[in-house]
Amino acid sequence: xxxxxxxxxxxxxxxxxxxxxxxxxxxxxxxxxxxxxxxxxxxxxxxxxxxxxxxxxxxxxxxxxxxxxxxxxxxxxxxxxxxxxxxxxxxxxxxxxxxxxxxxxxxxxxxxxxxxxxxxxxxxxxxxxxxxxxxxxxxxxxxxxxxxxxxxxxxxxxxxxxxxxxxxxxxxxxxxxxxxxxxxxxxxxxxxxxxxxxxxxxxxxxxxxxxxxxxxxxxxxxxxxxxxxxxxxxxxxxxxxxxxxxx
Length: 247
Hints:
Strand content: 5-15%
Number of helices: 8
């Protein structure tokens, strides 16, 4: 059954990615303005929700009022593919900072670019900071941005060291950070192809203001964000994360 469910999810992606991706591409060709309620906002959310539906996943949001303000930077833990589905299904007018390799996938990459997602070359520090400048422009235009400060996907719930880039972005944009803890995704799908029905929890933590911070504040901002997420994981699920090591 888990393998069959995985096949249903894969079939759904094969159908829905061209459908919703094509919607974004056509909207860009016709110069549809990027705003809340536009195809660039709705298509990624519907794409993610259909994936969760065929996966048999229930999404539970905690303290969702913290997500409702615009022009935030959502800092999210990253341990499985379903992190992305959960966050994309939940948030409105959100732009993901994602590895550049995804943007080279035919159609999918074009759709991501059309929707205003932001590619990042993780191995190229100068190019990475250029991506954060683009993210700042997205925020200034009214959208919010989602980032994964651990960089690559992990395979366990304890937090891993944070990269400093997302916190430089927050300071540059003078945008509040909303820490987001995703839990339950490993029970849905871990390292294997199989997909199991389950519940994924999204914990939206209180915003951390960046007004008045400068570049030298990036480590302190990263530490405050890390500590808030680690405390949530420990309080809610008994997950112990290692001490913060610095961004």
